[in-house]
Amino acid sequence: MQPSKRPFLLLIRDGWGHNPDPQAFAGNAICLAKTPTEDWLLATYPHVLIKTSGEAVGLPAGTMGNSEVGHQNIGAGRIVDQEVMRISRT
């Protein structure tokens, strides 16, 4: 794979989750807000949703992640086992 020479932006927005359940919108300020810039970015540029809990971020299945775990995995470019996983494997 050839490296891209085009500009690239990695944008991490703590607190901006995604819930596909329309019933969850009622108490979600971001879903209720007018977000023209957000809407334009999503319509114009490629984007991806990432998993943020459990084995996808090096935690036991069903365990909620946090920003530290997420940033560690994104920065490493791979799944980084967290301490609880390393301990349970020894």
From TrEMBL:
Residue ranges constituting the Metalloenzyme domain according to the UniProt record: 7-74
Name of one Pfam family that matches: Metalloenzyme
GO molecular function, one term: manganese ion binding
Stored InterPro entries: Alkaline_phosphatase_core_sf, Metalloenzyme, Pgm_bpd_ind
Recorded GO CC terms: cytosol
One BP annotation, GO: glucose catabolic process
Name of protein: Metalloenzyme domain-containing protein
